[in-house]
Amino acid sequence: MLHQRALRHLKVTVLCLVLTVVVLRGTIGAGKFGTPEQDLDEIRQHFQTSRKRAEPHRVLEEIQTGGGGGGGDSGDGGGAGSNNYETFDINKIFVDEGEEEKPDPNKPYTLGPKISDWDEQRSDWLAKNPSFPNFIGPNKPRVLLVTGSAPKPCENPVGDHYLLKSIKNKIDYCRLHGIEIFYNMALLDAEMAGFWAKLPLIRKLLLSHPEIEFLWWMDSDAMFTDMAFELPWERYKDYNLVMHGWNEMVYDDKNWIGLNTGSFLLRNNQWALDLLHTWAPMGPKGKIREEAGKVLTRELKGRPVFEADDQSAMVYLLATQRDTWGNKVYLENGYYLHGYWGILVDRYEEMIENYHPGLGDHRWPLVTHFVGCKPCGKFGDYPVERCLKQMDRAFNFGDNQILQIYGFTHKSLASRKVKRVRNETSNPLEMKDELGLLHPAFKAVKVQQTNQA
Amino acid sequence: MLHQRALRHLKVTVLCLVLTVVVLRGTIGAGKFGTPEQDLDEIRQHFQTSRKRAEPHRVLEEIQTGGGGGGGDSGDGGGAGSNNYETFDINKIFVDEGEEEKPDPNKPYTLGPKISDWDEQRSDWLAKNPSFPNFIGPNKPRVLLVTGSAPKPCENPVGDHYLLKSIKNKIDYCRLHGIEIFYNMALLDAEMAGFWAKLPLIRKLLLSHPEIEFLWWMDSDAMFTDMAFELPWERYKDYNLVMHGWNEMVYDDKNWIGLNTGSFLLRNNQWALDLLHTWAPMGPKGKIREEAGKVLTRELKGRPVFEADDQSAMVYLLATQRDTWGNKVYLENGYYLHGYWGILVDRYEEMIENYHPGLGDHRWPLVTHFVGCKPCGKFGDYPVERCLKQMDRAFNFGDNQILQIYGFTHKSLASRKVKRVRNETSNPLEMKDELGLLHPAFKAVKVQQTNQA
């Protein structure tokens, strides 16, 4: 067993070494980098099981958002004085601000300066700031839901409309459950663009907000479809990372979809900082991300060929470093913290017929996640009509649970129109709201004075 | 004085009588309606100063959202199996659900059944539900910010992108200030479409949520540009309605822009219900709204010709019924609860140079409101480029105040790109956030057990 593990570690190390050498020597030439032993050291520091980290402190360079066109005033989109939006070209009004600085290829990527006493810093702060407790009720941690999208308009015209409906959906769930929202539209680190952008953001938010006990990352293409389901916080009291997934698929099969990073909980502590640091190295765009992608496709089961993504990297990290991280990671499959839309959306009518909100699982999924639909881009992995139609159904399915509080419902899951299902009354407070969402128990929180750090 | 007032009342009554008779006899014929005396009675009940209301209880009919196209599957937008969003026609996937029922022309419009004991109902409920107090801190009322947009995609491609940025902007302000958000996308009452849609919505939310002390309505085209400004709640303790405006312009001049209903506070009490009831009658779409529009254009100063809008109706209501409502209405002009964009957006750089957030007024406006821009529609009142460019600048102006908390800022007010302005540190909690927005005092609230109903 030990022998096998040692071999596995060595294999990982060698792979990473090859990776780095290929990338760096391709860009800067062999002379500047030093000996293979030094290369190996750098790589080992990132992936070794004792979680020691590389030291270099690097100020993040100016970054690009990945968009923003050119040009100054006016343009042919609609004329200088035109009031007509239809023919206007949005990209004509943005100014391209300066050149972006290229990251220094000599320095390995880092999310930020080393912090090894975050638990102490945080508990000190909480003790000094009782008005910002990390628990807002018994068994009720303070949670920040983090989501976002790119700062530029979607390439396809209806994409922004779905982003809008998606954030409304999240606003509704979070209002009912006493959760705050951070909607990000800024790229904090140009190297970590795309799906990796969440890592610098998450780290920044955890360190800025010690009062947050759990950060809940949620993709913009994921929607709440069970407004009544409260997360079982008690279940996670000994865990730091909760993702939807299956132990066997991750640890035994190394299946690239054995877990999902589109909706997950991360506790605010040192362990999380260490995890982010270990997770990040496959992210920097360009050759690192491309080469890492090849490693992941080779090492993980079922993974297509494409650049490294954060989810595959997480599977790989857990599968190869189970001893380091596994005991604090909860792979949840008792309810749909993430629910793949393909197996859910055709069953909504059946769910309405047979079940009720509050279950969170296959009977009434907490989250329906439209992986692969990519409504903001030009092309998705599925037919456009199927995606948009189902996204509207999912939205309406969730929205109905909000509307019923007020006596309304959508005319059908396909319809934007709503209809009244309960008459107005002159005694509105005697009305019983069936789902108990009007003044939900999980919202009736009292502020605790003692922090449970 | 009394003589003049009596004459004014009579004039109002006669005008309304003429209005109703014209409308009703035009639609249903003279025979069904009865005598002029009965007509006069109905009208008088709506506009009389003692606030007695018309009795009929009418169940709201099924409503339309004002959009939603036709067709079932597929269509020529992109082919049945196409993954290409660019050529896809969104309207092909929606089903037109049933016919809408027409409102009964015999019955005057009403927002709902008469309630005259709402203060008692509400205080009883608050006493029984100490976990949902209406004050969440000393001098800190529970506030619900209400906004929204139509359920269908914007006619112009970038409109939804601006709605998205606008709601992110509101999420940021409200998170800092402990305010909850309700984003509405449902048309609750087909007759009160467009700008009047807020009335049934506001009434519904007040009656459903007795724990709300103030409802803050805010248009989707209004943005927060001072993230540090907390509303002076104490100033309003004896008032029920707060709007930006000027007494002289409303009461003396009857100027149609003497106040603004794009951003206002309404306290949750009987007075508010009575106000909504009195405000509503000019709203029902069709002939009533058109004819009411003519009255308003004639009676108010500077008003263009168009159907009755809620803002003009409010000016008219206050100017003609000052004795009834005036003592509980605060026309605020000490800061920009609503700030007309035209006189603000070109000064942002000057503001940054000379002032700082937290002022809320002409030096650093709380709200920049893009009246007339209409980015969701096809045509606005101003050139498209001017509107969109300035909306981006306003968004960035506000967003910079959020980003600076985390050590970033936009490269310029015109740029989507952000740049770092503060290095990462291994002691993030020792960092002083200049604006005090990281853990703002107005957020450090304790839950009070006693309700101040």
List keywords for this structure.
homodimer; 453 residues; alpha/beta; two-stranded antiparallel sheet; 12 helices; 33% helix; disordered C terminus; Glyco_trans_34 (chains A, B)
Structure report:
The structure is a homodimer of 453-residue chains. Chain A is an alpha/beta fold and 453 residues long. Helix content of chain A is 33%, strand content 11%. Chain A is built from twelve helices and twelve strands. A six-stranded mixed beta sheet of chain A has the order 4-3-5-8-7-9, sandwiched between helices. In chain A, strands 1-2 form a two-stranded antiparallel sheet. In chain A, a hairpin with a 7-residue loop joins strand 11 (408-410) and strand 12 (418-420). The longest helix of chain A has 27 residues, at 2-28. Chain A is globular, with a radius of gyration of 24 Å. Residues 22-80 and 447-453 of chain A have low confidence and may be disordered. Chains A and B meet through helix 3, helix 4, strand 4, helix 5 and helix 12 of A and helix 3, helix 4, strand 4, helix 5 and helix 12 of B. Chains A, B: Residues 65-81 have a biased composition (Gly residues). Chains A, B: It is a single-pass type II membrane protein. Chains A, B: Pfam families: Glyco_transf_34 (PF05637). Chains A, B: Residues 52-61 have a biased composition (Basic and acidic residues). Chains A, B: It is found in: Golgi apparatus membrane.
